[in-house]
Amino acid sequence: MKTRISDLLGIEYPIVQGGMQWVGRAELAAAVSNAGALGMVTARTQATPGQLRGEIERTRQLTDKPFGVNLTLSMMVQDISYDDWLEAIIDSGVKIVETAGNKPHAVISRLEAHGITIIHKCTSIRHAISAENAGVDVVSMDSFEAAGHPGEDDVPGMIMFPAARRRLSIPMLASGGIADGKGIAAALLLGADGVNLGTRFMLTQESPIHADIKQALLAADELQTLLIKRTLKRTGRFYSNAVSREIVKLERRPGGATFNDLHHLLSGERGRAAMLAGDIDGGLICASQVIGLIEDIPCCAELVSRMIADCRDSLQCTLGIFAAQVAAPIS
Q1: CB-based contact 123:153 (threshold 8 Å)
Q2: I need a surface site. Which of 167, 197, 284, 310 has the fewest CB within 10 A?
Q3: Per residue in 15-40, is it b (16+ CB within 10 Å) or e — as a string?
Q4: Closest CA to 257 of 235, 238, 233, 231
């Protein structure tokens, strides 16, 4: 399935794995790449740049296909240096980097100098235009349905993707609310050149999170996510559990809540420990509304193959319906 994304990234299918904290490890990234999509190692999951080098090498031992590295740029701390992380990525020979969080401008020139393709995750069209003007190669548009940080504008994919396509000239990934081939087909019809899938790849056999977490998300429906940190203007979408519900409760009290009030609940290490131990209420767990569409936990090869077949069937069906309507006599 050739699109501008598959051609640019050197992959068989226009599917990119989301750069999920604590989830984007070597086993998952390699499995996604071996399936013909683009796997993504998450840099900040590793404690140090040195450990990132090791994770990249582990990934390379598991696949000879292209894969990328996600580097999240802090939104909370300004003027932070990413030199050591960039050095680890560049020295490891990685050729695709996904930036997220803060503006990518500070790292673009260094990545470009080493021939690295840059994907930047955006939650608004104005940010995507800024990223395109700054020189990124691809934008990944995160819609309101997405897990993690969907931005503050609350624009769903059915509006965001075609609106972004009208304003952008570079390739675009659709991200948020996509779990199957029908979703991929819809994204392509709305103007995307490919898709970015996070939660769907969390629920695969190669995903490193605990089986109990996978089963809880598998049993959930589209109503079992919450938006947290809204009052801080750092909105995040997470699975509805004891921790996310407590955060919402604190934010809704008279006077709201400060970051310091929530810090102990927002702890990334707490979330990591919960996902590894299978403690569904132990910490924050990222999840898109798409959990309401997921019905199994396949291996990545089966999932990608199935999604592509479903996408092709859906596109052919859509074209067939359109052709029949055009050919039908006007009464």
Answers
A1: yes
A2: 167
A3: bbbbbbbbbbbbbbbbbbbbbbbbbb
A4: 231
Which residues are CB-neighbours of 292 under 8 A, at least 6 positions away?
220, 221, 222, 223, 224
Across-strand partners of 71? 99
Task: State both tokens at 300.
Answer: 């990545």
Residue ranges covered by each domain of the chain: 4-208+305-325, 211-289
What residue type is 225 in one-letter code? T
d(CA 176, CA 157): 7
- Angle at 289 (CA atoms; ends 159, 264), nearest 5 degrees: 115
Q: What is the pLDDT of residue 322?
A: 61
Do residues 73 and 82 lie in contact, with contact meaning Cβ atoms separated by under 8 Å? yes
pTM for this structure?
0.94
Q: Give the domain 4-208+305-325 fold.
A: TIM Barrel (3.20.20)
The tokens of 301 are what? 């090869």
Judge contact between 128 and 134, C-beta under 8 A.
Answer: no
Cα–Cα distance, 211 to 276 (Å, whole number): 9
Query: Quick check: 228 and 236 in contact, CB under 8 A?
Result: yes
Q: Give me the helix-helix angle, 242-252 and 259-266, nearest 10°.
A: 180
CA 131/CA 121 separation, integer angstroms: 9
Structural element, H or E, at residue 195 = strand 194-197
What would the 3-class secondary structure string for 290-318 be?
HHHHCCCCCCHHHHHHHHHHHHHHHHHHH
Q: Is 17 helix (H, G, I), strand (E, B) or coil?
A: strand
140: three-class secondary structure by DSSP = strand
Among candidates 96, 143, 104, which has minimal Cα distance to 120? 104
Residue partners of 132: CB distance under 8 A and separation at least 6: 139, 168, 169, 170
Whether the Cβ atoms of residue 64 and residue 10 lie closer than 8 Å to each other: no
pLDDT for the residue 115: 97
